[in-house]
Amino acid sequence: MGRVYLPLEDLQKFELSPSDLTNSPDSARMRALLAMEADRARDFYKSGHELIHLVNEDSQPALWVLVTIYQRLLEKIALRRYEVFAEKIRLTTREKLTILGKGFLKRLT
Prior knowledge:
The protein is mainly α and 109 residues long.
């Protein structure tokens, strides 16, 4: 859609520009940048998990579900070596339902 959600300074660090992300991006050229961004996201997810107990108790399970789904999605992206331009990477319905079920159990306890 013509939007770039990566910091310009990060792109420049890897000698990339926003235009490198359009049309048919070269995943191999992007891999180091995406790995760095994934590491940053992992740190944010870890911090998010550590802060969940500060949120209203009724909302904690839902927040846990959201953070966990996005965290698992990130790990799938990493397993595919950041090949995110060829096809959409998603969790299966079963994976999502498993996480949702665990969140529901957290709500009951």
